[in-house]
Amino acid sequence: MTHSASSPAATAEPFEIADRVIAVDRIRTFADAAASHPADPDAVAIRDGRIIAVGSRDDLAIHVGDRTVIDEHPGATLVPGLVDGHTHIVFGLELTRGVQLTDLTLAEAQDRIAAAAAEAAPGTWIFGWGTDPNIFTETGFTGKLFDDAAAGHPAFLRLRDAHSAVINSAGIAAVGLTGRETFPDESAVGVDEQGAPTGYLLELAAMDLVLAHIPSEGTDELADRLGVVLDGMAASGITGTHVMDFHPGSREVLETLESRGDLPIRLRFSPMVPPGSTTATLEQIAALQGLHGRRWRVEGVKFMIDGTVDNGSAWLHEPDCYGQGRRSIWTDPAAYREALGFFAERGIATATHAIGDQGVAFVLDAIESLGAVARRAAHRIEHIETIPDGTVPRFAELGVAASMQPIHGTRHTRADRTDNWSVRLGEERASHGWRCRDIRDSGAVLALGSDWPVTPYDPRVMMAEAILRAPVARPELAPIQPEQALTATQALEGYTSHAARAIGVVDEGEVRPGARAAFTVFAADPLSVSAQELATIGVVATYVDGVPVVR
């Protein structure tokens, strides 16, 4: 690497010595090239976890000293570090406890539970997760379908939406469910025509009632499992994620894992605000802001205004085909508006889960009603699964970011509308699903994510399916609303610059002097390959705070 005085590097301190210089074939900066760096840069200099210069190899020679580490990645392309805009990292460990049942038929799921029962100690609970709601189409939601498979063991099986679960007859008996349980929100225990519990548990409070009777995993075991998940994320190119909760026990698990070494990715936790929270509860959540470790921090809050389409708890303008979906999880929706204002006044960013058309409209109305107060904090809406034409432009108009997971559409719905989600909504509302391109074209911010563990976290597959609007692994399937496909640039922006804009930060999501030194290095240019190739593109290295966490 040599220095050419004729093309000076763009840097505030021309001769500051770098800790590390990374040289590649191409850098996709997602920054204003004219203002921040020369054209076609292929090297970046880092000091103390920040970018100090971007330019050519020759340009950056002035930043190389005796102790500067130089990483050469021939033929590779460097982009801002990928950030998954919506996950449940520690809570996800609980959500992924036991046997994975994702995309299995009823018979296949029963076989897998039977195999787990054969290995379980007498009387112990069997867990499963990722259960497809479509397997209950003929019977309705009931855990009794797994009575025989579980062979007398109580079984707790989460549905893939993470908003519901079923327990079998042995589980009903072990917990003492009666079907007459009540909750402060719209959570419920399913009952049959005689009023007896079916084992269906709708929403978090109902599930928590059952989980309180089941032994939980220890902190060390959870830390072990969290380490595996975070290492896998880093290996796939993820450098950070917005975690949409701060589940009880999260701090202890994080501190245990961080006592063993640095986390491989950065974690931003937004604690959940329970429906109907009192002022005291809001103040407790506000007091958590700023709590942090070396690579994790609590920042922002998460609301849920509704549930999911699949279980009939999304908040809709008109009921679904079963007459469901006409209520908010917040029994008093006006209290949501007040709670939103509480955090906005304090400059605390908000994110609200809103899936149904009425839920999304209500949240936008609530933010608009705050007036100038709303501008004190960043606001975003999560999921946005079905909205009419009139709602689309309101995101850009109000400055509200959209945080979406189009992979839910490609994995959980079908082009022929025979899936549970589409059947419940009907043709018109189903055709308005996951309107990623419309929202981007309106000028709004669009962050992308996986909602792990609801769907796998690999960002390459996520971006590819946002482009294809169909599962990468199922090329024989017709695309779902192909007019909503994103371009490769838009998909990558959803994991980089738009992910940063969604939380109102200015020093992430770009490769420019002053920004955080978080990078994903691909074996090829992700903007010059096909969507199918993007799904399997090699990750050469992942950098966090200017150091490689995967090489």
Textual characterization of the structure:
It is built from 20 helices and 24 strands. With 551 residues, it is of the alpha/beta class. The protein has a six-stranded mixed β-sheet with strand order 8-9-10-11-13-12, sandwiched between helices. β19, α12 and β20 form a beta-alpha-beta unit. The longest helix is centred in the middle third of the chain and has 17 residues, at 219-235. The protein is globular and about 80 Å long. The two termini are 21 Å apart.
The global form is globular
Radius of gyration using CA atoms only? 24 Å
**Average pLDDT rating:** 93
Task: Report on the biggest sheet.
Answer: 6 strands, mixed
How many H/I helices? 20
Category by helix and strand content: alpha/beta
Short synopsis of the structure:
This protein is an alpha/beta fold. The chain contains 20 helices and 24 strands. The strands form five sheets. It has a six-stranded mixed β-sheet with strand order 8-9-10-11-13-12, with helices on both faces. Strands 2-6-22-23-24 form a five-stranded mixed β-sheet, with helices on one face.
Layout of strands and helices, then pairs:
Layout: E1 20-23, E2 26-27, H1 33-36, E3 43-47, E4 50-55, E5 69-72, E6 77-80, E7 82-87, H2 91-95, E8 99-100, H3 106-119, E9 126-131, H4 147-150, E10 155-159, E11 164-167, H5 169-175, E12 188-191, E13 197-202, H6 204-211, H7 219-235, E14 238-243, H8 250-258, E15 266-269, H9 279-287, E16 296-298, E17 301-304, H10 333-345, E18 350-354, H11 357-369, E19 379-383, H12 394-398, E20 401-404, H13 406-412, H14 420-425, H15 427-430, H16 436-441, E21 446-448, H17 459-468, H18 488-494, H19 497-502, E22 519-522, H20 531-534, E23 539-544, E24 547-550
Parallel strand pairs: 1-5, 2-6, 7-14, 8-9, 9-10, 14-15, 15-16, 17-18, 18-19, 19-20, 20-21
Antiparallel strand pairs: 1-3, 3-4, 6-22, 10-11, 11-13, 12-13, 22-23, 23-24
